[in-house]
Fold this protein.
Amino acid sequence: MERYIWVGRYEHDIKGNDIFCGSITIYGSAKGNNHSFSEQENFTSETREFLAFACQIIKDLILTSEDLRFFFLDELWAYNIIDIDSSVKKYFILLNDRDTLEFLNNKTLSRIWLSTELTIPPFISATSNECEYSYLKKYFPGKSKFIIQESVSEGGEGTFMLDESNQEQIMKMLRQSQAYSVSPYLKHSLPLNATLIIDRGNNHVVFPVSMQILSNADSHMYYIGSDFIASRNLSEECCEKINSFLAKIINKLKSCGYKGIIGVDFLIYNDVLYFIEFNPRLQGSTFLIDKAIQNAHKLSIYDFMLKTQVERDLFQNIYGNLNIALSFITNEYEHNIKTSYVPVEIITDGDKQSYTRFVYNTSLCCSQYQYNIVDYYDYFANRYHLILPDVEDSIANQGAILRTIVEKYSERTVQTILDCTCGIGIQTISLAKLGYFMYGSDISNAVLEIARYETEKRNLNIPYFQADCRELGKVFAIQFDAIISIDNSLSHLLSENDYIRAFESFYDRLHDGGIFIASFRDYDEIVKEKPVWAYAPRVKKENETTFVTVRNFEWRDDICISHQYFIENNSGKVQLFYNTYQQWAITRKAISQIVSKTSFSKCLWLFSEETLFYQPILCLVK
């Protein structure tokens, strides 16, 4: 009868499992049936040193028993040990050939392989010299931070975040002979991981998805833990996307004959799923999955991979309905959260605690994914004056229109006005030129920099602040005579709760009798047809460069997704800039109903026939 030995990184990975009769690990107690390479705290070494150690232990063990079989955290470790001594191969459990493992382990090759069926982030394969900051800025126009990854690496050891401030430091870290995969940093993305198993009979299991906890330390992007609790708050629509996404991946893996456990790292960015990489081995979070299975069913994840007599229906029932109410973080970063959360278990490997994991039954990540509009405005900030139809005409004329409205409907004299979604400052500047004491705020720092520049250019004095319009009280202690939000800005709020928070924020920052006005697209008419194009292509020319702007709409019920394409053509040298955002195509009736749930009691709508403004205007008085 075969007996199994675990070969992995941590002794604890098989804690509570009676399927293994011993272990060979990098970290461990070196007691009983554990053979550990190190008990030293913060010990680091090349993997090949551990594999040479493991090879010798394996040879010693098989001399004592011919029925031992060795199961590896990473099958590539097994092949590397075979390179040292091929006589041990017959004792190894190998489900995949070496070429398949190396192919899937390569970030560049696996992305290219999946690119015809799944969305992958824009990336290039580059040498260390080609990772120079100015080169990447030209290759990824509009981006200022980049993720540089060794094509073969794990845990963040070969992953760097490059920006203008650390370029010299990063260039010194990169290895001359190494190939790198380089992508723009997707700032507000949500990093997720899924663990899959494909058994020898081509059955498969998908475990619950976890949110990855990452740390940007020392210019690296390290993996430091996982949170299965937070991921349960993903929306039903998002989960459906993930299921479809993983189904395609499973079919691709089966097509190449892959067997066993594998991890899939992916991102959600602006509601799009991006494949990042495969990890054809056990994951850092696998021990939490195993713990949940043991607690619920007294079985192990390794039963599924090693035992052939377990009923498949039983496993499908276990894994299909598994609840993993756990999260963990490593010892290096636990101090950041220990004042708030109490771990349910502290896991150490070895007497000297070379590695510690803190397990929680509390979510350590954000509780839910929220679409973020900042990226779009940050991305296009320097080009926004070229996207809009006529900035100078708007500055010249819109202030007078807005003045008429605030003076007519406000119940107090208007002197101070806050433009709470000021963007690049069009309405803020226009009203300041008429003599109002103007303040500007926006959630995007990048557009505020443009607004400051345009203000100084006109010799005006307008203070600008970064602020979320839903939380103005966090930034402004003063109250205003009027607050404005023009050009459909509030439609970026995608829920009734967000609208209520925003309206209460406006109410709180207005003087009694003060007025709030906001303009909206006429969604009452737009939603009847749900057009594909926002407007005809806009063409502008400056010096020798022609700029073309095209925006098309994608509809998901009453959510309008805008895809913005901005093309620069400089004497035949063409560059495309692209980004996207969402807005709620909210009707006036829906807005009025939301207002009725807030502190505002005076609400009316104004239309172009009266105001001469190109959009309907909501008018609220405190």
About this structure: The chain has three domains: 3-94, 100-121+197-205+228-360, 374-523+590-621. The mean pLDDT is 89. The first helix runs from residue 47 to 64.
